[in-house]
Write a structure and sequence with these properties.
single chain, alpha+beta, Creatine Kinase, Chain A, domain 2, about 40% helix
Length: about 300
Amino acid sequence: MLEKLYLNKREILEKSQKFFKNSSSLILKIGCELEFFLFEENLQKPVNQATRDDFIAELQIELPKKFPLIYRIEEEQGVSQIEVKTVFTPDLSRLCEELEDAKNFIKNLAAQKKLTASFAAQPFVDDCGSALQFNISLHQNDKNIFEFDENILKNVAGNLLKMTNQMMIFLAPKKEDYARFSYEINRNLFKKGKFTAPINLSFGADNRTCAIRVPRVHQALFQTNGKRLEYRIAAANADIFLAIAALLLVISSDEKNYPKQIHGNAFDEQYEVAEFCMSLNEAKKIFEKENFIKEKFFEFSIPN
């Protein structure tokens, strides 16, 4: 069943964009942050700092030339971890094509150097996971709506949280991806002062323990875009076409959902925040039920 969707993912994304355009007068812009680890060829050991620095330096030259939406490549918190960032763009088809091609370029470049670039969600139990984070904003007449309408921002966040479980099959498509959401792993990472992955359907301002974060500080080209939602759930190996197609459908919803803001550590038990599904089997069961995203995706997968 899912194979049909993956085979038709470009068609699904195109029709999802048309659906959004017909549902809203606003323009959706998305920028991505993609993380991965660099290993020695046998995947037994992460590369040393010098090897990572050399690899980053080469990517900094090659990726922006080949993929203009990519503007920054830098080291991340994890040992041998690297992050690739894109600018915000309304051209979501191009964003998906460039990021997918960039992942293949990175893997091939690593192989040429007898290294391995791993986009696995949680390669280590004692280090950061790797995510595909979506930075989201809505615009009208060249103005970022999130800058002056807090209700729209919170409503988009609320709808994303409410429908996350319907999207999980695409956000975390492999069984092992769900280790990244482990309470124990993230609690220990938090104690070490490292970035954590979300473990529940939480919303916060500049709070990296939450599933959705509204950053206080806007870096580099992100700053020109203004206020954004950072949707932090997707694993680095998520299919970007189907993930963004699902985001389009959710953000087009006119349902009213306003999440409660978390001010502390989102996975502290005191907050009693609802969880998203924590296994691939659970994600499949939720998707197989009749739901909005499933119905639209199969409708969109029919050729014109």
